[in-house]
């Protein structure tokens, strides 16, 4: 067996075990009884210990040293690139720290869910303090005495990106977003939904939407969770959604969003299964798929016309007169607190808030004890009104309980990437709106699959977007042009 063959055999087995660990995480948020939290923490820590040992196995370094990339094709070179990057990072993190992170984040997740239900940040604070302290230790190990600690963690989610680049991008976007938001809020309010929407009917429409957007239920399933998410890769990719009796959009667009993540994983070339190339290349690129499904496609005038008829057939009269009014309702810009329920304009402002706060926490400039106050002050400054309770503020997101510091900016990076992809898609598919108006998303899905999804991790994140966009480098300009055109017209 060649060094490359031995390396890939080892990596495939490690990837398989990682999928098992991921299934434990899915179960924790969907099916696990609440009293199992302590035991699940031990199980997760044990699995992380096994995975860490495999990732830092000295043989990996020996195999990498024995491989001449010139002997490999483009796929083999990409596999080695990704294995080397993961190996270099894993060998910097002590095994006991990796296991402790798994243990503490499991406990913190359960504490977050309970604290969120009670609007009690103080109950969650000690858990978050432990998680942040552990992530600081991990960042120190990854930076190895030099470099920005936030950048060190960011590489887990968006390889090749830096906090400075993100900050510069956000600073460039913020003024236009604030101006567009003011224009939208000053316009006549959009019609609102009336009545309640049966939960079972919501889930039936949700399943129909998932299949419309290409989700394969033979290798996936839909469950409910407090915070919608997608989990898995290859032949087992699961999503969750949630329902609200008076807000079916919460269910429908959460589903479409998570299906964007899930179909990316389902559509990756089968030859990459259980290898480093068999997953989405980064969270920013991943988010580009969920956001383009949800927004540029799912909230378009063409598609919402079709969805309006589906809702009328399912729920009867719900207070919106026609498809044009429904389009305005779906895209309404209203005051609100929740990131996942925010419109396309305000969503990025939510991300910018979180990005700045978590950078400050990691740097030691913002103690966790002061996080709730800092959140509330920043929210009032950015949005113009006060947070009313912790579950609408600092406790609304699951991410920090799971140690995902550095993850949040990838949401807005995903919006930027989605803007680039949609511009390129529009150029290639002049009849896109006619298809969407019939509920036919197929042409758009085929374009995304062939241009980006099938390639998995073959290219770096930036190169993945540039390849799909005919060589054009990622830029926030297409997104801002799309938002300006859309929301200026809606406000007219």
UniProtKB/TrEMBL annotation:
Cofactor(s) the protein requires to work: Zn(2+)
Function: Broad specificity carboxypetidase that releases amino acids sequentially from the C-terminus, including neutral, aromatic, polar and basic residues.
Cofactor remark: Binds 1 zinc ion per subunit.
Protein name, UniProt field: Metal-dependent carboxypeptidase
Keyword vocabulary terms for this entry: Carboxypeptidase, Hydrolase, Metal-binding, Metalloprotease, Protease, Zinc
Coiled-coil segments: none
SUPFAM superfamilies in alphabetical order: Metalloproteases ('zincins'), catalytic domain (SSF55486)
GO molecular function: metal ion binding; metallocarboxypeptidase activity
Residues that coordinate or bind Zn(2+): 257, 261, 287
Gene3D superfamilies, per the entry: 1.10.1370.30
The protein's enzyme class: hydrolase
EC number: 3.4.17.19
The species this protein was found in: Pseudaestuariivita atlantica
Catalytic reaction equation(s): Release of a C-terminal amino acid with broad specificity, except for -Pro
UniProt similarity note: Belongs to the peptidase M32 family.
GO biological process: proteolysis
PROSITE patterns, alphabetized: PEPTIDASE_M32 (PS52034)
Residues at the active site: 258
Any Pfam family the entry gives: Peptidase_M32
């Amino acid at each position: 067996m060649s060094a490359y063959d031995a390396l890939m055999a080892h990596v495939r087995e490690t990837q398989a075990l990682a999928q098992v660990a991921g299934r434990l995480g899915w179960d924790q948020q969907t099916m696990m009884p609440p009293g199992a939290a302590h035991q699940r923490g031990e199980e997760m820590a044990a699995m992380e210990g096994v995975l860490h040992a495999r990732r830092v196995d000295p043989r990996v370094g020996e195999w990498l040293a024995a491989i001449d990339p010139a002997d490999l094709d483009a796929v083999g070179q990409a596999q080695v690139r990704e294995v080397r990057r993961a190996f270099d990072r894993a060998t910097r993190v002590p095994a006991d720290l990796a296991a402790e992170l798994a243990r503490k984040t499991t406990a913190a997740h359960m504490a977050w869910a309970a604290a969120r239900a009670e609007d009690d940040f103080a109950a969650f604070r000690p858990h978050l303090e432990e998680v942040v302290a552990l992530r600081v230790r991990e960042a120190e190990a990854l930076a190895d005495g030099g470099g920005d600690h936030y950048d060190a963690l960011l590489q887990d989610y968006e390889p090749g990106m830096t906090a400075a680049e993100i900050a510069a991008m956000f600073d460039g976007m913020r003024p236009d977003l604030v101006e567009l938001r003011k224009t939208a809020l000053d316009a006549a309010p959009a019609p609102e939904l009336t009545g309640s929407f049966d939960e079972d009917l919501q889930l039936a429409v949700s399943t129909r939407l998932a299949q419309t957007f290409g989700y394969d239920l033979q290798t996936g399933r839909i469950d409910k969770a407090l915070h919608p998410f997608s989990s898995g890769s290859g032949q087992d990719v699961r999503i969750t959604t949630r329902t609200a009796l008076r807000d079916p959009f919460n269910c429908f667009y959460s589903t479409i969003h998570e299906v964007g993540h899930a179909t990316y994983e389902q559509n990756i070339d089968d030859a990459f299964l259980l290898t480093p190339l068999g997953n989405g290349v980064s969270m920013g690129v991943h988010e580009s798929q969920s956001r383009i499904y949800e927004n540029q496609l799912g909230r378009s005038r063409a598609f919402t016309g079709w969805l309006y008829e589906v809702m009328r057939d399912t729920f009867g009269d719900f207070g919106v007169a026609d498809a044009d009014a429904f389009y305005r309702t779906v895209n309404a810009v209203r005051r609100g607190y929740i990131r996942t329920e925010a419109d396309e304009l305000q969503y990025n402002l939510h991300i910018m808030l979180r990005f700045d706060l978590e950078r400050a926490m990691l740097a030691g400039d913002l103690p966790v004890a002061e996080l709730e106050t800092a959140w509330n002050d920043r929210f009032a400054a950015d949005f113009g009104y006060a947070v009313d309770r912790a579950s609408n503020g600092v406790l609304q997101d699951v991410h920090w309980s799971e140690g995902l510091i550095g993850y949040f900016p990838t949401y807005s990076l995903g919006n930027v990437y989605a803007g680039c992809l949609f511009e390129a898609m529009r150029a290639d598919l002049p009849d896109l709106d006619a298809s969407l108006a019939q509920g036919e998303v197929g042409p758009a899905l085929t374009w995304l699959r062939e241009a980006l999804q099938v390639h998995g991790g073959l290219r770096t994140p930036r190169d993945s977007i540039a390849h799909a966009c005919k060589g054009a480098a990622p830029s926030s300009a297409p997104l801002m042009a799309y938002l300006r055109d859309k929301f200026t017209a809606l406000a007219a």
